[in-house]
Amino acid sequence: xxxxxxxxxxxxxxxxxxxxxxxxxxxxxxxxxxxxxxxxxxxxxxxxxxxxxxxxxxxxxxxxxxxxxxxxxxxxxxxxxxxxxxxxxxxxxxxxxxxxxxxxxxxxxxxxxxxxxxxxxxxxxxxxxxxxxxxxxxxxxxxx
Length: 144
Prior knowledge:
Elements: E1 2-5, H1 11-21, H2 28-37, E2 42-47, E3 50-59, E4 64-72, H3 81-95, E5 100-106, H4 110-118, E6 122-127, E7 137-143
Parallel strand pairs: 4-5
Antiparallel strand pairs: 1-2, 2-3, 3-4, 5-7, 6-7
């Protein structure tokens, strides 16, 4: 597996992965807008020249970053891709001097919650009706 930065040519595949892996419907322009905001924070995982996963987030302040999306192709889940993506993203945060990483995760997504807990995140709260379908989210944080 190789990691690299997202580029505009990746938009179609990243959008497809997001639609197949995540429950929200996103406007494709969101990916380009956020890439322009922090290019180092948008990382692609490839295997045999095919994009199999991605992670991206933003810097909320000089010391806080936020993961917005992490998606892995269903055929490649459970093989460590998510962990590799996350650890590289965390490294990028450390390079920028981030001290805390936050994220939101659907309260029903036990697989993601366990994954983030394994990475060291802790539940810090619940956000009622956070998602477009009315689902609640847990807020999770990790201090670096």
